[in-house]
What does this fold into?
Amino acid sequence: MKKVLVPLTGRPLDRRAIAAAFLVAERFGARLEGLSVMPQVEIRTSIESAAIPKALVDQLMRIGQAEQAEVVDAAHRLFDEFGSRHGGSVSATWQQATGPLAETVAEEARLADVTVIAQASDGTNAMGPVIEAALFGSGRPLLLAPRAEPSTLGGSVAVAWDGGAAAARAVAAAIPFLHRAEKVVVLSTDTPQDCRSADPERLTGYLALHGIAATVQGIALSGRGVGRALLESAQDVGCDLLVMGGYGHSRVRERVWGGVTLDILREPPTLPILMAH
It folds into this structure.
């Protein structure tokens, strides 16, 4: 793993994303790139008010640009603060772009090994479109930052396994993390699966070929949603990272957000989650 991308928006959630991103970059000796995306400032007027003087339009444009610049500067300062906290152990760079946030993040994520994003904790789902774009539109894995700044990430890893294609892609993306983990636990629910690859023991055998020792932990849903059960079980076995595929019970994208993926993304998770689709 050589490059970690962390998009920043000037919101309080940036702190959690940056903290997780620096831990990942430090663990792999990777370069960390902070990305700030500024929307194109536009002044839209109705037909009745289309005769606004050009001087006033220019002034409004300058005000909008100045406000955006303040947001970018604040995000940059926070990024530099974490760089100083890590004592220069991480090679960190800063990039600024102009355009639609979700689309720009997805495009930039295609040139990174993993993208780190934090979900809003105020129930607004402010980062939902960006998370969806990164997960479904980049072709690269996504790491969701937890609800609190993490102090460790990747020392002990839980893998949610149902034998599906998305889970297999998540495992492939997680191989670098699994190689460096002190403990790897495969989580398997008591929900019947109809594919040959769903047996968690087959996954541990595959991981062994990569030199990765893993154990299996069966989990009972006991009335809980699958997402909640996976997170709670990962914490119960002492893991600080959960790996899972980026779809729920259906492979149809329009229904993904009604399954396990939506269950996970409703609010910031209690653990960092590495996802792939």
Notes: Residues 248-258 have pLDDT under 50 and may be disordered. The radius of gyration is 21 Å.
